[in-house]
Every structure is written in structure tokens, then in C-alpha cells.
Amino acid sequence: MPPKKGTKRKASNGSLANGEMDLLPPDRATWPGWVEMESEPAFFNVMLNEMGVQGVKVQEVYGLDEEMLAILPQPVHALIFLFRYRDVDETESEKGTECPEHVWFANQIPDFACASVALLNIVNNIKGLRMGRELRDFKDFTKDMDPLSRGDAIDSFEFVKKIHNSFARENDLLIADVHYRQKSMKAKKRQAVAKARETREAKKEGSTPLKPQPVNGRATATPERASTRTRKQPASIANGTASPASSPLSDPPESDADFETPSKAKKHAQETNGDRRRSARQPKPRKDVFATKAPPPDNDEQEGFHFIAYMPIQGHVWRMDGLDSFPQDMGEFDKTVDGGWMNVAQPALQTRMAMYEGADIEFNLMAVVHDPVVKDRNELARNIKALQAVDEELTKSFEEWRDLDGAETKKDVITGFSSEVSITQTDIDDAALTKELLEELKQDDNLMRLVEMRKKIICEQAPLRGAVRDATETAKGDEEKARHRRHDYGKFVRSWMGALAENELVTDLIEDAT
Fold first, then answer.
1. What's the rounded Cα separation, in Å, for the pair 426 and 135?
2. Which residues are marked as active site?
3. How far apart are CA 289 and CA 298, in angstroms?
4. Fewer CB under 10 Å: which end of the chain, C or N?
5. What is the pTM of this model?
6. What does the sequence similarity comment in the record state about its family (predicted)?
7. What burial class does residue 151 get, using C-beta atoms within 10 Å of its C-beta: 0-12 exposed, 13-18 middle, 19+ buried?
8. At what angle do helices 435-443 and 373-397 cross, to 10 degrees?
9. Which one, of 174, 147, 132, 201, lies nearest residue 320 by Cα?
């Protein structure tokens, strides 16, 4: 039967023609790994906000002296120490041998996830902190897990991973892919070396030499074979025939030299004639490729940035390092003494910073502090509601009360919901008025006293309004920084450079620049 003729394929003009295929960059929304985070407080604040965390913010710390620590908003919930990781940190001893039940701690399982691990180790240990539904469910899900299992759970927590990787650019994903690939290849190489070493050791154990058997009272240099074959007599050098005198069992040897082979005997004779032909150079030691000592890790693995958290939990200061097996208790502190837990964390951090002085190692320090904007916004909503209640009572007493002296309303006074300070009508309705104000409104129907009460409420609003506006502007600035960080300008730069090259302008620009 003749072979079947295949259908002729049509030529394709697409990207798959001639075996070519477009290389698409990885999608950070579905990328399975983690990328390295930059130590920018604005990025951490945006991450906390998108995770649904309210009441705390991240602020940069410029020094550990008392003056610098005093300007931080109180209370300070934790310190985040960022540094370039070196092998010197591997030798730091771990004092903790278990994770207490009252401490939520997770190990860092995936590479480059230390920023999110540090944040989760912090927010899950702050009592009364308002968190989003996803983080609350995650904390309940992992409350009975050990640190290693919690680390695995973080690696599978897509909600946090997407927020973390949203700051990655296309180049960051490619660099991380190369890192993971190299790490996988090195792990396979280490496994191959370990397997070869085990095979070599097993062969050594299986080929143990036999004990020498004595011949005529002397130990032979080689063991006798247990064989039924007849030993072949060596030929005589003199007449070319077999000679009984050449048998090793005929006569006992009279000296140790008789045990030597002709080549060894010749070598022995040359050594006795003198050392004139011996080289003075010492032989090179052989390199054992199966040595038990593992090769030192590459610098790339040793010089990644790493985050460590220090925070107070139930009267003790804990060091939360995801690379440690367990959280480390740094010591107890006295809450009544000025400085509180900082008196324990401050010297520990200063010692660590002193280790890196002069070593060209970058480090940075940030603080997780109380964010008063939530409380200030609630107070502002309560103030607006009180102002509306007084205005309502004034309208009941005198409809033209706004024309009275002292009853005017300045332009910057907030009398209702405001998008500028992120206060909705629901926030105002949910605000509860104080009992004192309610009693005053019931008892006092004097028009002028109500006007004075209104002036007092407006005066109390000024600092709240300023604080909330400042916090809102700061949050907008953080979001703007995050927006620029998340936007990948690489495509624009490549297109622009391509257009310049197409018009043969790159060479001219380089010449003008030089």
C-alpha cells in the first residue's frame, strides 16, 4: 500500500510562522512567585490599606536616639529593620525553641516574601487592630498552625500575594524567574553531588580489603585467591622454560626486598643511589570533588534584602525573623519606665547596626505606629453631627438665626459629608453624640447660648479638620507613589528608543551627550 499523502499546510503569516513565537512577559496577576519589595513606607501603607488594615501606618525612622524616637506618633507598635542579608547573619544564635500560643509567628518559605511576612507577623499580634475580612479569616484559619505551616499558608494566600506583586515591574519578574531557575539548578547539582558521595562511600564500605594471609611465618603483600585453577608457573628468564625455583612457594624469601615486584625493586635501587633525580617541588594535593564540606553559597543568595520585625507582646520584646525557626524573646520590659519596650529593642538594633558599620551594607529602619486618622475622622464626624444638632435647635427657636452676630459660618467649616476628608453621610449618622451635649440641648433653649455652643463646636472642629486633611493628603501622596511604582514604563522607553533608532537619531544623541 502506498504511503498516505498528507494535506499540505498553508503558510502562516502569524507569529508562529517558521517556528517563531512571540515571547510574552509574565503576568504579575497570575505569576506564582514573589518579588523583592522596596523599603518605601508609602508602599507599605498602601499594602496595609489594601489589606483592610486600619489604625496603623508605617513611618521612616531616621535615628534611634531619644529625640528621633520622641517625634514618632505614639504608641509605636513595631520596628521593621531592613538590611542586606549576609552569611554573618546565619551564625546568629536562636534562643527560642518553640512558638508561644500568644505569639502569631510565621516562617518565610518563599524567597522575596519577607516584606509581607514581616507585616503579617506584626498586624496579627496587635490587639484590637481593625483588619479586613480576608486577614481576619486568614488569622482564624492559621491560629492552630505551627510557624512552618503558616509560612506555607502565606505562600498560598493569593490575596496578599497579588498585593505584594502589584509593585513588581516586568523586569522584576524576569529577574525573579532567573533567580528561581538558578536556585533550582543549584539544588539539583547539590543533590547529584550528595548522591555521588553516598555511592562512593557505599563502594568503599563494600570493597573492604581482606586481611593478609601469612606465608611461612610472614605476611604476604597481597591476599591469596580462593580459586581451583592451577597457578601458571612463570617462565624462566635464563632458558625460557618454566623453573620450579621461580615459584613463590618454593623457598621462603630471605629479605623484604624479595616481596617487591621488579618495578618496585628498580625504584628502590634508584632511591638508594641518591636523591639527585628527585624534584624538590611538593606534589599538589588532589581535589576531592566528593568532599563532605558543601561549597559556600553564591553572593547573590547572601546579599538579598531582608526584613526583621521587633515588637512588644505581653511585656516582652520579640524579634520576628521569618528565617528563624521560632520567634526570639529579647527580654522583658517595664511599662512604667520612660521608653518602655524601646529600652530593650534600641540596644539590640544598635548592636546589629554596629556590625554593619564600615562593611558597605545598606540598612533602613521603619516604625509601625498608631495612625490617629481613624480616631480623628470619627471625632470629626461626631463634631459635624453635633453642629447639625445645634443648627436644628437654632432653627426651631429662630429661623433667621444665621443673621445674628457670631452665628456666621466660615468657608472652611465642614457642616456635612465631605469627600475632601473622606467622611460620608453614613459616618455622620453612625456617630454618637455625648451625653453632656444631649443634656445641654434639652435644657437650654436660650438662643444666644445656643449660638455660643455652636461657636465652641466650630472651634473644636479646627484641629480635627486640619489633622484629617493632612492625613488624607499624605495618603493621597502614598497612593501616587504606589501608582508610579506600579506603572511599567519599560514598554514606553523601548518604543521610544525604537522610534529613535528607526529614524537614526540614537547615534546623534549619544554624540551630543558625550
1. 25
2. 114, 306
3. 18
4. N
5. 0.68
6. Belongs to the peptidase C12 family.
7. buried
8. 10
9. 147
